[in-house]
Amino acid sequence: MDRSCCSRGAVQFRLQSSGKTKQHEPSKAAMAELAADQHVRYIVTVEKKKDSFESLVMEHIRLNGAYWGLTTLDLLHELHAVDAAEVVEWIMSCYHPESGGFGGNVGHDPHVLYTLSAVQVLCLFDRLDVLDVDKVADYVSGLQNEDGSFSGDVWGEVDTRFAYIALCTLSLLHHLHKIDMQKAVDFIVSCKNLDGGFGAMPGGESHAGQIFCCVGALAIAGSLHHIDRDLLGWWLCEHQCKDGGLNGWPEKLADVCYSCGCYQA
């Protein structure tokens, strides 16, 4: 989101002693009220700015952006602000019928991450009927490796994020039976650390993003009993910073992404 928006609502006042103008952040009371109309306006108009720097650098993950924006509209009960048929048509233009996966934009290679976003958006509009569900499920399940892990695409990068993404996608499609669930769970558990957290791979550093993904995957698999709730809860609480937000690693600044991951876990 445009960082400059944080200063637009700032209150200006003139210091009597110096004659200088100073910016002050909005009061806590003012910040407590969600500017829903402005959020809706931003989401609806940002898509039209095709030649902006932000649009160009995010072009390869446009499908993810569509999911974030449309989910926000849905939470604000404003999903009707967009043309559903137009959105669905664009989503399907990112589909690769030969593989069953979706790319992050038209003409981009398929990846399990973008495939999840496509399925989630179609669920928002209750339009899973446009999908060849078996083909998409075969694409996702085909990314499971012998050790139970999941690759993000045909190039083979493995990460616990992809395990969550795969399980989430297949759960939405009601095709969890297509994977070896026990192996998937075993791999995720092998990424658990002594501090109660989870890393991207066995032996990888605990990280808020991976923790959210592993907890989410285990929840879908009905295997939350593998988690040490007290120890993991302590890890998450320890990552709250003085400003109230949470970080993903020790000594990192807090941000809304890591805060979201910690709270969701």
Automatic annotation (TrEMBL):
InterPro entries registered for this protein in UniProt: PGGT1B-like, Prenyltrans, Ptb1, Terpenoid_cyclase/PrenylTrfase
Gene Ontology CC entries for this record: Rab-protein geranylgeranyltransferase complex
Reaction(s) catalysed (UniProt annotation): geranylgeranyl diphosphate + L-cysteinyl-[protein] = S-geranylgeranyl-L-cysteinyl-[protein] + diphosphate
EC number(s) per entry: 2.5.1.60
Domain of life of the organism encoding this protein: Eukaryota
A GO molecular-function descriptor: metal ion binding
Record-linked Gene3D superfamilies: 1.50.10.20
Cofactor: Zn(2+)
Keyword annotations: Metal-binding, Prenyltransferase, Repeat, Transferase, Zinc
Cofactor-binding details, from the entry: Binds 1 zinc ion per subunit.
Sequence ranges assigned to domain Prenyltransferase alpha-alpha toroid in this UniProt record: 34-259
Parts forming coiled coils: none
Family: Belongs to the protein prenyltransferase subunit beta family.
Protein task: Catalyzes the transfer of a geranylgeranyl moiety from geranylgeranyl diphosphate to both cysteines of proteins with the C-terminal sequence -XXCC, -XCXC and -CCXX.
Name of protein: Geranylgeranyl transferase type-2 subunit beta
Native source organism of the sequence: Panicum hallii var. hallii
